[in-house]
Amino acid sequence: MAVTTAPGTVSVRPPETEEAAARRDPREDEVVFDVAGAEVAYFGNVAVTGVNFTVHAHGITALIGPSGCGKSTLIRSFNRMNDLVPGAEVRGKILYHGQDLYADGVDPVEVRRRIGMVFQKPNPFPKSVYDNVAFGPRIQGRRKNLDDTVEAALTQAALWDEVKNKLKQSAYALSGGQQQRLCIARCLAVDPDVLLMDEPCSSLDPIATARIEDLMTDLKTDYTIVIVTHNMQQAARVSDMTAFMTAEIDEEGRRMGTLVEYDTTDKIFTNPSDTRTEGYITGRFG
Questions:
Q1: Is the pLDDT of residue 66 over 60?
Q2: Which CATH entry fits the domain spanning 18-281: 3.40.50.970, 3.40.120.10, 3.40.50.300, 3.10.25.10?
């Protein structure tokens, strides 16, 4: 099947196969996040404004855009990580399965259990491989079948075969790519619903990056994944939906991140609706 490309647009996504073309529209799946008029400010200064889109179950949604457009700020609002930043305020609505994440009475700790996060740089605890993965279940008071829980999480993270004889060794003895998969396993051990990944491959070599990308593709069968990435090729390879963000300057010279366009990844990378998206995809800015 031919891929229609807007004039001047360079596609970084491989040609569609008949199987890929026939797959279901990811927007037909259950809505996990419904973001309406979301805005994030720090000490009253707006960093991200006017964000409206939905994230659907069992897919990978990529947030792309130039540095400083608020991608990381936005993704951290999905599990209330911004609560930990002095002066941060989230406005608008961010609904998770229909529940306002910022409503009175919502427990941010429970939010972060259900909506796990993997950060830009691997951040294992200064503990053994085993204790890193078992940390979350222990905090939850789970003591039975910990060995099975650890093995299952490491297996899901495609790391078990590499570390099954090193469980008592320090996590710092692992390679960078292994440490990042360990952090993913640590998230999976507490049975989350969503994985947020904030540039999870930016500090990794190409081989480790490929392992993480393959892992994301496998995990979306059971989890919903939202990823921030500066790597457009990565977004094109792994994601089902893509949100393009950029930064705009208001009349008073303040810089604010905004959502420009949100659509299926195929459309964003081959036939975007907004000229700003096309300019970023083709490398004319950003």
A1: yes
A2: 3.40.50.300
Going from N- to C-terminal start, the domains of the chain cover: 18-281
Q: Cα separation of 235 and 266, whole Å?
A: 10
Measured distance CA(216)–CA(275) in Å, rounded: 30
Integer angstrom CA distances of residue 160 from 163, 181, 212, 216 = 5, 10, 14, 16
- Residue 73 pLDDT exceeds 90: yes
Burial class, 228, CB count within 10 angstroms (exposed 0-12 / middle 13-18 / buried 19+):
buried
For the chain, the farthest-separated pair of C-alpha atoms sits apart, in whole angstroms, at 60
Over residues 196-215, the pLDDT tens digits come to: 999 999 889 999 999 999 99
Helix (H) or strand (E) holding 61: strand 60-64
Please give the helix or strand (H or E) that residue 272 lies within, else none.
none
Which one, of 282, 286, 283, lies nearest residue 8 by Cα?
A: 282
Q: What is the pTM of this model?
A: 0.88
**What is the mean predicted confidence (pLDDT) over 51-77?**
95
Rounded (10°) angle between helices 176-188 and 206-219: 20
Average pLDDT over residues 270-281: 93
Quick one: which H or E segment has residue 242? strand 241-249
Percent of the chain with pLDDT over 90: 80
Could you give the CA distance from residue 281 to residue 268 in angstroms, rounded to a whole number? 9
Contact 49, 256 (CB under 8 A): yes
Residue 68 in contact with residue 247, Cβ under 8 Å?
A: yes
Is residue 32 within 8 A of residue 192, CB to CB? The reply is no
